């Protein structure tokens, strides 16, 4: 099969932090919950919302559903586009597709939101498939999203020992999710995770910038 590269979205292709943070704080305000400090909020960038509201804030299922609903009120109309493509990403995607790579996303963001973002920034044409979470949270974890993406591309169960598939992301969730399928992951250092986090999770390499990522993939 052609070389397949799975890309995370937030913190990898685009800097979505302003919109995510503002929408998270809006949701907390609506729930009457005090804001954590900035350092804590930064850790919420990357993991699924369900993990943040349930894991950190200790909400039950009803609370999680309510918090996510509040988040989406702001995010779907405003926060989605408080976002910026990282420099060099459009050229990298064009070079990879031109070289015969198959590109797809595997993001914890709902597919509908990921699609709107990629179309807004004229990046969608580079991706054979846009894989994301489901709005009903049935497909939520990074591993579930990767499985969904591979299945849609008829690549689930592919022998990955020859390096035919690579995951690219900025948080440990990307690395650990890919590892469940034997897929090596490259961590990017311009996103929301650190070198220590990515290497500790088992990333096979870390990219300092987009040019470096291109060389690692070639």
Automatic annotation (TrEMBL):
It holds the Pfam family HAD_2. InterPro entries: HAD-like_hydrolase_sf (IPR050155), HAD-like_sf (IPR036412), HAD_2 (IPR041492), HAD_sf (IPR023214), PGP-like_dom2 (IPR023198). GO terms for cellular component: cytosol. One of its GO terms (molecular function) is protein tyrosine kinase activity. SUPFAM superfamilies: HAD-like. This is Unannotated protein. It comes from freshwater metagenome.
């Amino acid at each position: 099969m052609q070389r397949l590269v799975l890309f995370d979205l937030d913190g990898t292709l685009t800097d979505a932090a302003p919109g995510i943070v503002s929408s998270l704080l809006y949701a907390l305000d609506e729930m009457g919950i005090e804001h954590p400090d900035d350092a804590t909020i930064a850790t919420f960038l990357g993991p699924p919302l369900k993990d943040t509201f349930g894991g950190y804030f200790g909400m039950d299922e009803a609370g999680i559903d309510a918090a996510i609903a509040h988040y989406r009120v702001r995010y779907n109309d405003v926060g989605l586009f408080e976002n910026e493509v990282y420099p060099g990403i459009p050229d990298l995607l064009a070079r990879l597709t031109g070289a015969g790579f198959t590109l797809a996303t595997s993001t914890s963001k709902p597919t509908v939101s990921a699609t709107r973002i990629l179309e807004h920034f004229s990046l969608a044409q580079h991706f054979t498939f846009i894989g994301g979470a489901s709005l009903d949270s049935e497909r939520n974890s990074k591993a579930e999203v990767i499985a969904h993406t591979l299945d849609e591309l008829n690549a689930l169960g592919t022998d990955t020992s020859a390096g035919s598939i690579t995951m690219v992301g900025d948080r440990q969730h990307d690395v650990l999710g890919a590892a469940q399928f034997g897929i090596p992951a490259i961590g990017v250092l311009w996103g929301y995770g650190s070198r220590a986090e990515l290497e500790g999770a088992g990333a096979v390499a870390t990219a300092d910038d987009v040019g470096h990522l291109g060389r690692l993939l070639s």
